[in-house]
Design a protein that fits this description.
The complex is a heterodimer of chains A (149) and B (357).
Chain A lengths: L4 H16 L6 H45 L4 H12 L7 H23 L4 H21 L7
Chain B lengths: L2 E2 L12 H14 L3 E12 L6 E11 L2 E11 L10 H10 L10 E5 L9 E5 L8 H5 L7 H17 L19 H16 L5 H12 L9 E3 L8 E3 L5 E4 L6 E3 L1 H9 L10 E2 L3 E2 H12 L5 H28 L5 H21 L5
Antiparallel strand pairs in B: 1-4, 2-3, 3-4, 4-6, 5-6, 7-10, 8-9, 11-12
Classes of the chains: A mainly alpha (149), B alpha+beta (357).
């Protein structure tokens, strides 16, 4: 698609922000247009990285699950699900498919995190540290340049 | 305030004639001495996605004298950021009238949908003020930031000091024991996440588990909790005076540290530095609040409530994203908060737990 999608969204955002928005009749409409422009700009930022960041995160979560199952997990049912998740791959690079897989992986991460918090071993603390590190990285992957923090 | 109309050149035709006509009929109903009631101006005010907010200027004849009156109308939207009780908000405004906590004068609470299709309440307009953080941080108000900050936490201390019984709120708001405040609020916002999240929230869930494992001490006293006391939710006049505290829709009884922690949350540090609310260094804000409230902000307890504030924030952003995605409310602020603030709030959680570095 030419012009590129992200460039198109950025130009639409500029137009809305600088030309169309200020011409609107009332304050509410102007501020709504401003917000819509900022959303378009964020969509442009997300467009280029959308598939990559999701695929990267899915790989990181599967790698984490693989490392955890190699160390051993007492809960057999959880261990089996972690093992199955670790063995899976993303068959499609469609963002919707990557997102669906990401939601499943992050739901499993919540279970794993809650489980290791209850285990008082050095291994559990190490896994917990890895989980927190992955959670921190997840916020870096999602970060938008205009977000406040 | 009722004042005679001096300059009719300022009159604008309302953009929403049906709502304008309906509101004029409602004013006629509420102000029996008014005749020939006309809406001169009807403008939607941006923000406040929990309710539609409209500025309405009305002219009428009162005993032969033409008068103009400014109102703010808060009407229930089809969908909202948070499911709130309009009566609670209205009662809170009423409770703090003529007190150390400045509020607009609350006039009428109307739950009969025959007037404006949805329930609403009406307040007197407070004129000539700004509320947006961006306006506060820019000239000329930027020169008054310290003064605004001092008032902000003094007012919050005054809210904490207010006796709910004397204010008439104890009988209207759900009672809670000092040692149960944290459990009730945490359960409330966990339920919001359970019901509204569009995708798993591993950081928020980890924070909830941490909060359960490390309960705070009982509340020093049961106070009125504003629920959303932050820069952006009060009106400031050009000389830097806070004229009105707004948005009481999440008002409840609870631990006053809840309000203090919410006001300090990283997400509201609009100047993108360490100043709480973009106004004052955190220790200064806490010291002012302690002096005004007569309470102590124990650091460990405050940390618990700061982490809780981020869970609550996450609940609000997740709900806003769901409202927008469901198509119930098309206000772009809902998508904006879902996109920008969810991840910021996650990072605030990591920071509070010492996991961001």
């Amino acid at each position: 698609m030419k012009p590129d999608v992200d460039r198109t969204l950025q130009l639409l955002a500029q137009s809305l922000l600088l030309e169309l928005g200020p011409g609107l009749a009332n304050d509410y409409a102007q501020k709504s247009a401003l917000l819509a422009a900022l959303l378009l700009s964020s969509a442009a930022e997300e467009w280029d990285r959308a598939a990559e960041r999701r695929a990267e995160e899915n790989r990181a979560l599967r790698e984490l699950f693989r490392a955890v199952t190699e160390r051993g997990v007492e809960d057999a049912a959880l261990r089996d699900r972690l093992d199955a998740a670790a063995r899976a791959t993303d068959a499609s690079l469609r963002v919707s498919e990557l997102e669906r897989a990401n939601a499943e992986l992050r739901a499993l991460l919540i279970e794993l995190h809650a489980h290791v918090e209850e285990v008082a071993t050095p291994d559990a603390r190490e896994i917990e540290a890895r989980i927190w590190d992955e959670l921190r990285r997840s916020t870096e992957r999602r970060r938008l340049s205009m977000q406040p923090f | 305030m009722i004042r005679p109309i001096e300059d009719m050149s300022s009159v604008q035709n309302p953009a929403n004639p049906d709502l304008a006509a309906s509101f004029a009929r409602y004013v006629s109903h509420r102000v029996p001495e008014a005749t020939d009631v006309r809406v001169l101006r009807l403008e939607r005010i941006h923000g406040g996605a929990s309710r539609e907010t409209w500025r309405v200027h009305v002219a009428f004849d009162a005993g032969g004298e033409l008068q103009e009156r400014g109102f703010v109308l808060r009407r229930d939207p089809p969908g909202s950021l948070i499911e709130t009780d309009r009566a609670t908000e209205f009662l809170a405004y009423r409770a703090f009238q003529e007190s150390a906590v400045p509020v607009p004068r609350a006039l009428w609470l109307e739950e009969d949908p025959r007037w404006l299709a949805r329930p609403f309440f009406v307040m007197e307009e407070v004129t000539g003020c700004e509320s947006s953080p961006q306006a506060l941080l820019a000239p000329p108000l930027a020169a008054h930031l310290e003064h605004v900050g001092e008032q902000k936490w003094r007012i919050l201390g005054a809210i904490a000091r207010t006796d709910p019984e004397t204010a008439g709120l104890a009988a209207r708001l759900e009672a809670v024991a000092p040692d149960a405040c944290w459990q009730r609020e945490l359960a409330r916002w966990e339920r919001v996440l359970d019901e509204d999240e569009l995708c798993p929230q591993p950081i928020g869930r980890a924070a909830i588990r941490w909060l359960r494992r490390h309960p705070p001490p009982p509340a020093q006293r049961i106070s009125v909790v504003h629920g959303d006391f932050r820069t952006g939710n009060f009106l400031v006049s050009p000389d830097g005076t806070i004229r009105a505290v707004l948005d009481w829709e999440m008002c409840h009884l609870g631990d006053p540290l809840e309000d203090l922690a919410w006001s300090l949350n990283r997400i509201w540090r609009w100047a993108r530095d360490d100043r709480a609310g973009g106004l004052l260094p955190v220790p200064r804000a806490v010291a002012i609040w302690e002096e005004a409230s007569g309470l102590r902000a124990d650091p460990a307890a405050l940390r618990w409530w700061e982490l809780f504030a981020s869970v609550k924030g996450l609940g609000i952003w997740v709900s806003s994203a769901k409202e927008f995605a469901d198509g119930a409310n098309h206000d772009p602020v809902l998508a904006f908060t879902g996109w920008w603030l969810t991840n910021s709030q996650d990072r605030a959680i990591l920071e509070t737990l010492g996991r961001l570095a």
